[in-house]
Structures are given as structure tokens and as C-alpha cells.
Design brief:
- With 278 residues, this protein is mainly alpha-helical.
- The chain contains three helices and three strands; from the N terminus they run ββαααβ.
- The chain has one domain.
- The protein has a three-stranded antiparallel sheet with strand order 1-2-3, with helices on one face.
């Protein structure tokens, strides 16, 4: 409780109140203005003046209270509209997000299937190359064996007739040289073919690795797109929720001010106003 003094229409009053002194002084000044305003009328009785002043103040307070109620109703309507809009946005965005996820999942499944098909084709190529290499190696070994057998046979034949027939010996020597050159040629050709097959094998492996890298990059891009969409949606929802919280706080403040004004109006009507004479 605090003791204060106020002057109303030339008369000083000592009061004890729990309300802020500035509020009490402002109310006293307002009351004095009203008394002066009605003092200009041809009213002899102070009781009539005070009655008219009280009615006028109650009327203004009632209008102010009604205005506050209208503001509260408008704020309630705005909050309801925002809550409805937020619910619709959440529902729509959840549907869009679900559709996007399903679409991305289907696309990733298609990509995975395509990659698996590409890998299977590459595996088949590799198997074919391996079989061809194996066949060529086998053919090369057979040809070399045949040439070796011919070489050994010619060598034996040359040894058998070397002592008696120089011409046949020369012919056999030439035949041996020719067979050696043929062996060298066949060996070189087989080595070239094996190198080509080996190069084709390495190229197929590199192509399979490149396709796998491309598909991984595409999958990462889809995941990044989904993450960006989720982040944008969360930020928008957070903005709307913050706006609703702000409006609710403003509504609560207005309700509090309305309640204080209503309590003071009731107190004034009952002659209390939280005051007591000192």
C-alpha cells in the first residue's frame, strides 16, 4: 500500500492504494476535467454533477472496453485463419513431399535396375573376352606344338641325310629357317591379338566404373534436392508458427489490459477503485 495525495476540483485528498501513483493522478486529472466540463452546465447540485460525470466516464469506459473486445475478436479470427492456413499448408506440403519421395524412390530404383543391366552386359563382355583369350592361348599352344614337332622332325630328317645329300641338307635347312620365321610370325600375331583383347578388357572395366560413378552422382543430386526441399518447408512452417506465437502473445496482452480496465471500471462503479482514504 502506498500513500499519495491528489487534488480534484480544488480539494486535496489523501489516498492509500496498491495502484501506481501515476495512474491514480491521471484518473484524478481526468475526473477533474469532467467535473469542470459539467460545471459549465446549469446544474446546481454537486450530486447531479458527480452523477453525470460518473455516467459519462462509465459510458466512455464501456466504449473503450467494447473496442478492446472487438480487437480481441479480430485477433482471434486472425489466429484461427492462420492456424487453418498452417494446417492446410502442412497437409499440402506433406502430400507434395510424399509424392516427391515416392517419385525419387522410383527413379532411383529404375536407375539401379539400369545400372544392374549395364553391369550384366559388361560381365558378359568380360566373360566373352576371357573365353576368347583362353581359346587363342590354346590355339597358339597347339600351333606351337605342331611347329615344334615339325621342327624336330625336320631336324631329325636333316641329320639322317646330312652325310650323303648336301642339296637335301640345304633344303632342309631352308625349311627349318622358314618354319622358325613362321613360328616367330605366329607368336607375334598371337601376342598382338592378346594385347588387343587385354586392351578391350581394360576398356570395358573402365566403362563400367564410369557408369557406376555417373549413377552415384545422379543419386547424390536427387538426395540433395530432397534435403533442400525439406529444409525450405521446415523454415516456412517455423515462420508461420512464430507468427502465431506473436499473435497469441499480443492477444494475451490485450486480454490482460482488458481485464485490468474492466476491473477498474467495476471498482469505480462500486466506489472502490482500489482506493482508501488516508
Amino acid at each position: 500500500m502506498e500513500k499519495i495525495k491528489v487534488t480534484i476540483y480544488g480539494r486535496e485528498y489523501g489516498l492509500v492504494t496498491d495502484d501506481p501513483p501515476d495512474v491514480i493522478r491521471r484518473l484524478a486529472s481526468r475526473l477533474e476535467e469532467k467535473i469542470i466540463e459539467f460545471g459549465a452546465l446549469q446544474i446546481r447540485s454537486d450530486e447531479e454533477k458527480l452523477t453525470l460525470v460518473a455516467l459519462n466516464i462509465l459510458n466512455e469506459s464501456d466504449k473503450d472496453l467494447q473496442g478492446v473486445k472487438n480487437v480481441i475478436n479480430e485477433l482471434n479470427q486472425k489466429v484461427s485463419a492462420l492456424e487453418t492456413e498452417l494446417a492446410e499448408l502442412k497437409e499440402n506440403n506433406e502430400a507434395i513431399l510424399t509424392e516427391s519421395i515416392n517419385s525419387a524412390t522410383a527413379e532411383m530404383a529404375n536407375m539401379a535396375q539400369f545400372q544392374e543391366e549395364q553391369n550384366e552386359q559388361l560381365r558378359q563382355k568380360i566373360d566373352s573376352y576371357e573365353k576368347e583369350i583362353e581359346r587363342l592361348n590354346k590355339d597358339r599352344e597347339n600351333e606351337i606344338d605342331m611347329l615344334n614337332e615339325g621342327f624336330h622332325s625336320a631336324t631329325k630328317e636333316m641329320a639322317n641325310i646330312a652325310e650323303n645329300i648336301d642339296e637335301q641338307n640345304l633344303h632342309l635347312q631352308q625349311k627349318v629357317i622358314s618354319q622358325e620365321k613362321e613360328i616367330e610370325r605366329l607368336s607375334k600375331n598371337r601376342e598382338d591379338e592378346l594385347k588387343k583383347l587385354h586392351d578391350g578388357f581394360e576398356s570395358a572395366v573402365k566403362e563400367m566404373a564410369y557408369i557406376a560413378q555417373v549413377k552415384d552422382n545422379e543419386n547424390q543430386t536427387l538426395r540433395n534436392t530432397l534435403n533442400n526441399f525439406e529444409t525450405t518447408f521446415d523454415n516456412y512452417v517455423k515462420l508461420k508458427e512464430d507468427e502465431i506465437v506473436r499473435l497469441r502473445e499480443e492477444l494475451d496482452g490485450t486480454k490482460t489490459e482488458s481485464q485490468i480496465l474492466s476491473d477498474r471500471l467495476s471498482a469505480f462503479a462500486n466506489g472502490q477503485l482500489g482506493l482508501a482514504y488516508d
